[in-house]
Amino acid sequence: MWSTFSVTDEEGRSVAPGVAGTAGGLAAGGPPQGSGALTGLMSGRSTFGGNKRRRTTSTGHTMSEAQEGKIKLAFFVAIVGVVLTVLGVGTEFWVELAPLKTFYNNQTCLTAHYGLWKGCTKTLWVADIDPERESCGPAEMPGESNCTYFKFFTTGENAVMFQKTTQKNLNVAAAMLAMFSLFLMVMGAICITMSLSKEILFFLKPASICFILSGVLVLLSLMIFHQSVLAFMASDQTVPLHYELSWSVSCIGCASAVLIIGGILFLLLALPCSPWQRCLPHKDSSS
User: Fold this and answer.
1) What pLDDT digit, counting tens, does each position of 205-221 carry?
2) Is residue 285 pLDDT above 50, yes or no?
3) How many whole angstroms separate alpha carbon 163 and alpha carbon 231?
4) Which of 268, 209, 203, 259 is nearest to 77 (CA)?
5) Which CA distances in Å does 183 have to 123, 190, 214, 225?
6) Are 183 and 220 in contact (CB under 8 A)?
7) What pLDDT score does 62 carry?
8) C-alpha neighbours within 13 Å on the C-beta side of residue 173
9) What are phi and psi of 90, to 5 degrees?
C-alpha cells in the first residue's frame, strides 16, 4: 500500500500533497509539475542552435548548404577583387615616366613613377639598361630612389616632374573615387557576412549593389587617372618624355572586372528562382 505524505514549509503549513515513491513529488490529481516547460524546451531546441538548418530566411525559404556554398564561392571572387584593389591603390606604380637615355649624360639617367598618393624618382646607370631600349628604365631596376607624398591633400600644391606639372583636380578626383569604392567593398563584405551568419538572403541584394558600384568606381578612377597623365604630358614639351602605364593599373583593371562579376553573382543568387529555370522550363511543367 502506498503511503501518502504532505510537504510543509518552515512554518508547518501544508504546501502540496504527494504520493510516496513517485519521482519529483507529483501533485495529486494533476500532471507532473514542470512537464509543460520540459515539452516546450524539447520542441524549441532550434532556438538554442540545436538545429541550425531548420531556420528559415525572411522570404520563408531555408538556406540550404548548396546555397551557402554558392554564396561563399561568390564571396571569394569578390574578395579577390578587393585584394587587387587594395594592392593597386596602395602602390605607386600606376605610370612610369622616362626620358631618353642620352638626355642628361652618358653614364646615368633619371626615371620616375607615381600613383595616387606619392611619386618616386630613381637614378639608373645607363650601362645596366637594355641597349635596345631608347628610354631610361624600367623603374623596377635597382638604383638610387627618392619618394615623396604628393601635397594634393594637404597644401593643394601640384607636383613637378621633368618640368611638367600634374593636374591636382584630376588626381584628387581619382583618389577619392578609389577610396569611396573601398568603402563600398567594406559595406558589401559586411552584408555578405550577415547573410551567412543570419541565413538571410535579403542581404545579398545590397551586397551585389555595393560590389557592382565599387567595380564601376574603380574603373572610373582609372580612366580619370589616365586623363590626368595625358594632361601632365601636355603641360610642357621641353623635355622629351616617354610614359607607360605600369602593373598597378593592371591590378586596378582586373579588380574592376572581378568586382562587377562578383556583384552579378550575388544578384543572381538573390533571385527567388534560377534564371535558367525561368527561361528554360521543364517539358513536364504545367507552365
Assistant:
1) 899 999 999 999 999 99
2) no
3) 13
4) 259
5) 37, 11, 8, 19
6) no
7) 54
8) 15
9) -80, -10
Q: Is 86 helix (H, G, I), strand (E, B) or coil?
A: helix
pLDDT digits (tens, 9 = 90+) for 104-134: 767 888 888 999 998 898 888 888 888 888 8
The number of C-alpha atoms within 13 Å of 105 and in the hemisphere containing its C-beta is 5
Going by C-alpha positions, the residue among 210, 181, 193 that lies closest to residue 72 is 193
All three cell numbers of 167, joined, read 593636374
pLDDT the model gives residue 161: 86
Which phi and psi angles does 182 have, rounded to 5°?
-65, -35
Q: By the 8 A CB rule, do 34 and 41 touch?
A: no
More confident residue, 77 or 17: 77
Q: Which residue has the cell 601636355?
A: 234
CA atoms within 13 A on the CB side of 140: 6
Q: What is the DSSP string of 201-246?
A: GGGHHHHHHHHHHHHHHHHHHHHHHHHHHHHHHHT--SS-EEEEE-
